[in-house]
Amino acid sequence: MDLRLPAGLFFSAVGLILCLMGLVSSGKPAPLTDINVNLYSGAAMLIFGGVMLWASRRKA
Amino acid sequence: MALGPVDYLILVLYFGFVLGIGWLLKKRVSTSEDFLTSGRSVPLWITSLAFIAANMGAQEMIGMCASGAKYGILTAHFYWLGAIPAMLFVGVFMMPFYYGSRARSVPEYLKLRFDEKTRTFNALTFAVMTVFSSGISMYALGRLFELVLGWSFTTSVLVSAAIVLVYTYLGGLTSALYNEVLQFFLIVLGFAPLAVLSIAKSGGWEGIQARLKPVMTHAWANLGSASSNPMGVEIFGMVMGLGFVLSFGYWCTNYLVIQRALAAKDMSSARRTPLVAAFPKIFLPFIVIAPGLAAAALVSQFPSVIPMKANGTPDFDMVLTSLMSSFYPSGLLGVGITALMASFMSGMAGNVTALNTVWTYDIYQAHIRKNAPDSHYLWVGRATTIVGTALSILCAYVATLYNNIMDLLQLVFGFVNAPLFATFLLGMFWKRTTGNGAFAGLISGTTAAFFTWSLTVAEGKGGILGNVHEFGSTMAQNFWVAIMAWCTCFVVTIIVSLMTKAPTLHELKGLVWGATEMPETRHEAWFRRPVLLAAIVAIICIALNVWFR
Questions:
Q1: Chain B, nearest residue to A29 by Cα
Q2: Same domain for B185 and B66
């Protein structure tokens, strides 16, 4: 089994969920920050997941 | 803090993936070695990340953040003075003997190099210690989730233990390793935003320096005397105690981490496992310590980031979760809590898989049933997974009733562990070392640790036999107990070895420096050369120490 495939799937899914959260309910930020934390960290995870998926496809 | 439905969705998604990985790896297990040592077939990048992930239990994550808030950048010594040099040493110098001897575990190396009694002493103490430490971290996690999220202690302990049990039972060490890598990514991606946000809120590194006393932002400047820094440790105790004895003792002899490197597919990968692992390890302080440091900088402006105990003293163990609830909205909060759960699981799976192997090969096969067919040992390994997990759960409950027993046990294990590195150093690099010498050294080193602790006092601890010296902190006391134990073990091992019959060169082949052919790597590509990799890590590590001096 190539771990990059499940890892890529997991982080893409979590990244997608966070991005959606960031876009939909941006009106409720955390107490100490005004930044849209979900959107940015979701995007980072989506990119990481994408790279993992791409790496697992490339080898196969 | 309260979790929303999305947070639970992320947690459940994570549970699904770790169980799925265990299920997919089930078919790779057909012999006891597949189950207990991964059949020496795991790729380098996985053994490397698992090497550090197995050490990143929930207690370490919470503790490093707490220590960052309490002691500041001094905490980084656990990485830049402690772990990194030891990881370089084990990769370059010790792995040729561990991997080359074909020993399946660290105690088994002791059996090959020395004798049965030294192996059994190490195996038994390691097994008991492993069960208790996974019980203690289970207890810590259950308590934290009870306090912060309002989950029942029993539910979080049983659910998390059951998931670890299922995936290690199905896929053995391979499944634990693969999941540790997933957990490592999750811990980094889940905690990194916390570091970025909390440091940005404090005004960056300049802002933190301006808000805190210089002693919190300098790693070396205040080590001249024990009274000038909050850890209460002077430079010799720090470098010798933490940097040498304790860190080398952990990273070079603890089977929990060595097992990860031994699962690598060849000698070159095994040697490079701790070296490649050192690259991410060296930057972990920026993720695990920095948020604590930022909390200390922010507390005067936002008192809620460091919660108070009922008696009015700061509760540093709560800093990590209070920062999460301050900076993470629903969604990322789920990722943060899941990352904490993942760190707990990677630590526990590390304990369970190491216990399996030591029990099966070093205790059961050595003393209880010697010549059974391999399928029997595979069965024993699987059964140990279940029994070990059950015993850990039991320990977690014992800890809820008698907290002092757990403190006492950790103290005793500290005594047993402290001299270990002297035994390995002499065993691997001095041909004259004998089994009786090693055993006498271990016993006397442990005894020396006990007496050092009993004759000194720190924060009201120790001193049960008298008070010869008073330390500024229990940390300083721990370091000095380790130093005394190490030196005693070193000297006694040499003396007794010289008085007993020397081992023949034939017996030592492949086990000792000078009786082993070291792997030749001069003509390999640069990234396959252990010494070169170690040199790069060393330069980065020195640069960071200088920068944060």
A1: B329
A2: yes
Statement to judge: residues B244 and B138 lie in one domain: yes
User: What residues in A contact B38, CB-CB < 8 Å?
Assistant: none
Number of domains making up chain B: 2
Upper half-sphere CA count for residue B431 (Cβ side, 13 Å): 12
Q: Any chain B CB within 8 A of the CB of A50?
A: no
CB contacts < 8 A, A to B, total: 87
Residue of B nearest to A36 (CA): B329
pTM value is 0.93
Q: Are residues B467 and B357 in the same domain?
A: no
pLDDT at A59: 65
Name the pairing type of β-strands B469-471 and B456-458: parallel
Inter-chain touch A1–B327, beta carbons under 8 Å: no
Domain boundaries, chain A: 4-24+35-59
Reported ipTM: 0.95
- The pLDDT tens digits of the residues spanning B325-380 come to 999 998 999 999 999 999 999 889 999 999 999 999 999 999 999 999 999 999 99
Rounded CA-CA distance B464/B455 in Å is 7
Partner B contacted by A19 (CB < 8 A)? no
Torsional sign, CA B399, B404, B407, B412: negative
| B472 and B396 share one domain | no
Q: Are B140 and B58 in contact (CB under 8 A)?
A: yes
Q: Which domain holds residue B291?
A: 5-401
